[in-house]
Amino acid sequence: MAEAPTTTGDEKTRIVQERLSLYGPNPSMEQQLMEEADEDIQKARAHELSLVTAHRNADAVSTSLRYAELTQQLWQLLYGARS
After folding, report:
1. Using an 8 Å Cβ cutoff, are 37 and 9 in contact?
2. Which of 20, 33, 44, 76 is the S-S candidate for 80 at Cβ 3.0 to 4.6 Å?
3. CA 19 → CA 36, 62, 78, distances in Å?
4. CA 37 to CA 26: how far, in whole Å?
């Protein structure tokens, strides 16, 4: 069973905490890290969406090619028999 995706808030908190652990406690840096985390999350989601779109487009092309192949075979069966 797939794990439920984290919410944006949970995701952002996790990213900020990871980065703060690298830099050490620094309250003045926390706001900047929150903004960077927001940007990173948006970029990751946009990338994920583009991958999903590319996968769907590839499926559509594959289906179209298969349809064209089957149509060609049907024409050959129908009109090849009359030759």
Report:
1. no
2. 76
3. 10, 43, 67
4. 16
Which whole-number Å values give the CA distances from 56 to 49, 53, 61, 69, 78, in the listed order? Answer: 11, 5, 9, 20, 33
How crowded is the C-beta side of 26, counted as CA atoms within 13 Å?
15
Mean pLDDT of 39-67: 96
Q: Which of 38, 43, 1 is nearest to 16 (CA)?
A: 38
Residue 20: both structure tokens together: 């703060």
Burial class (CB in 10 A: 0-12, 13-18, 19+), 53: exposed
Q: What is the pLDDT of residues 60-77, one digit of tens each?
A: 999 999 999 999 999 999
Picking from 15, 17, 7, the residue whose alpha carbon sits closest to that of residue 40 is: 15
